[in-house]
Amino acid sequence: MAKETVDALVDGGKASAAPPLGPALGPLKVNIGQVIAEINKKTAAFTGMKVPVKVIVDSETKAFEIFVGTPPASGLIQKELGAKMGSGIPNKLKIGNLAIEDVIKIAKMKQDSLTAKDLKAAVKTIVGSCNAMGVLVEGKPAKEINPEIDNGVYDKIIQSEKIDVSSEKRNQLTEQLSAFQKKFAGELAKMETAKKEKEAAASAKKAAPATAPAGDAKAAPAVAGKTAPAGKAPAKAPAKK
Known about the structure:
CATH class of the largest domain: Mainly Alpha
Structural class: alpha+beta
Largest sheet: 3 strands, antiparallel
Helix content: 40-55%
Number of strands: 5
Distance between the termini: 125 Å
CATH topology of the largest domain: Arc Repressor Mutant, subunit A
Strand content: 5-15%
C-alpha cells in the first residue's frame, strides 16, 4: 500500500488547517479536521512550544497515523521554569533552579531522541543543557552536580523515575537560587554599568560632528586686492621716466 508522509512543526495543542498542515494534507484527501484534532490531543502537554509531528496517510484507505516528536531540551526546560529564554551570561546570571526530579521528567521525555545509553546518562545530558541556559539543578551548576550523579547520590531517585516535587522542596529551590543570585549581584551590577557607559560613549561619538584635525587646514589662495602675506614686502611700482 502506498503511503504519503507529511512532516510539520506545530504549536503544541493549537495546530490548525492553516499552513503548514492544511496545504500539505489537502492533496492527500484525508479528513483534515480529524487529523488536526488528533494532533492537538497528542500535543496538548506541549502547550506554548513548537512540536515536530509526522502524519502518515494511506493513499488508498485514507487512514492516518500520527507520530509526535518532542520539543528541544531547551524548550522543555523553559516550560518547566516558566521562563521565556535562557541567560545571556549563564555562568553568572542564573534564571532558575530545577529539582533533580524535574530533570528526570525532561530526560524521560527526550530519552528516545538522545544518544544516552540509559536514563542516568540522559539526566546528565539535560543537566548540561541547563548549565548552558543559566539554570541550576539542586542549587548547583553542572560542574558540581554531575560528579554527584556519577557517584550515585541520586541513583535511588533516578531508578524510581520520580518526577514529583513537594512544595517544601520548591521553596528550598527558590532560596538556593536567591542565594546564588546575591553572590554575583555586585559583579553583574558593575558589568551592567560598564555596558551602559560603553554604549553612551559610542552614542556620543556617533553624534559628534566631524572636525578636521589640527594642522590640516590649507592656506586659502591669494585673491587680488588682498594684503600680501606677512614677511613679504609688496612689489614696488616701476619708476616714471
